[in-house]
Design goal:
71% of the residues lie in helices and 1% in strands. It is mostly helical and 271 residues long. The chain has 3 domains: 134 residues, no CATH class; 63 residues, no CATH class; 68 residues, no CATH class. The chain has a two-stranded antiparallel sheet with strand order 1-2. Helix 6 crosses helix 11 and helix 12 packs across helix 13. 23% of the residues are buried.
Length: 271
């Protein structure tokens, strides 16, 4: 089954890549814990990232790519016939290269000074993608909603805080909270405190996250106008993210998937 220029196999591969990115993030975090005195020393780049949420997601990602010297890599991705397969092959080649690399003392020192900042950038992207998987919007989108004002601002702010507490340092969020403090809005501050320690709902379940991520990919390749039957084939038959209990469940599952996709795309249209 094909969706724009991607097949169901490509989408499977993309979801595997997303999982691999999360795993590598936590492995890298262990390195920070083990060497925190050296990696957070005064001569190291500061690992701050909340300002990146003020940017649209593509600009956010581009800034990190420039930091890592990966501009040419992005050009290669954009020109490739199958971008997902290209990224998989590139990750495999990178792993082989890194395993064989033996940096000299000067290279180790350069890495030490920038590693925490690079990790911080990766962390900010991971959290923004996590927001997409849970709420259907990047953290960058949620900040933009708060910046624009209106009835959805508070809901967007509280959702963003649940994903990343450092977003309170973002200028847009800081200005919103400061106004509520000046107005002595105790009810808002109570909701904010709950959001800071609150648990996420069933939307946190991995399958729901992967479904939102898949819909985002389809939207970006122009294959987002799927019928209920197409959605059923994709999420039940091809990706196995949704299960049916009985054969007579098909119609109900199709309708639920149609509503799920509709709400996701509707949210995109107004963000």
């Amino acid at each position: 089954m094909n969706f724009g220029k991607f097949s169901s196999h490509d989408l499977h591969l993309f979801l595997d890549l997303a999982d691999a990115f999360d795993v590598e993030f936590f492995e890298a975090r262990d390195v920070l814990f083990q060497a925190k005195e050296r990696l957070f020393a005064p001569d190291c780049l500061k690992p701050a990232w909340s300002h990146l949420y003020e940017l649209p997601i593509l600009q956010h990602a581009t800034q990190g790519v420039e930091l890592l010297g990966g501009v040419e890599f992005i050009r290669q991705i954009s020109k490739s016939q199958n971008q997902i397969q290209f990224m998989q092959d590139a990750m495999n080649a990178f792993d082989v290269k890194m395993n064989a690399w033996e940096p000299n003392l000067a290279e180790k020192e350069e890495i030490r000074k920038s590693l925490a900042a690079i990790f911080a950038f990766s962390y900010s992207l991971m959290l923004s993608f996590r927001s997409l998987k849970i709420f259907g919007l990047y953290l960058n989108d949620l900040v933009a909603i708060v910046r624009d004002g209106g009835s959805r601002s508070e809901k967007a702010l509280l959702a963003a805080v649940k994903i990343d507490q450092t977003i309170l340092a973002c200028s847009t969020i800081n200005a919103y909270v400061s106004q509520r403090v000046l107005l002595n809005d105790d009810q808002f501050l109570k909701r904010l405190r709950r959001a800071l320690v609150g648990k996420l709902t069933l939307r946190e379940q991995k399958n729901y996250q992967q479904m939102r991520l898949t819909l985002q990919v389809l939207k970006e390749v122009g294959a987002d106008k799927l019928s209920a039957k197409d959605l059923y084939r994709l999420f039940v038959d091809e990706l196995a993210l949704v299960a049916k209990d009985r054969n007579d469940d098909v119609g109900d599952v199709e309708e639920n998937l149609r509503q799920f996709a509709y709400q996701f795309m509707k949210q995109k249209a107004v963000s």
